[in-house]
Amino acid sequence: MTTAESDARRAGQEPMLRLVNISKSFGEVKSLENVNFAVWPGEVVGLLGDNGAGKSTLVKIITGYHRPDPGGEIYFHGRR
Q1: pLDDT tens digits, one per residue of 22-44
Q2: Under 8 Å CB-to-CB from 70, ≥6 apart: which residues?
Q3: Across the strands, what pairs with 35?
């Protein structure tokens, strides 16, 4: 747990952005599988990984460019 996350929880805040069980497939290729991710108020986050790990796909889902596969949920300031 990060300092920002623990401070936000103590203050009763929700994450600014929360992804729950996000998956994305392109045909037979699974780009993401059951990703859970949260960004808390005051937190700065970096996204790192090898080539082909799904970083760009995750960012494109967050920005609305791609839709996640059914079953995943995205919350922004507590609203789905």
Answers
A1: 999 999 999 999 999 999 998 99
A2: none
A3: 22
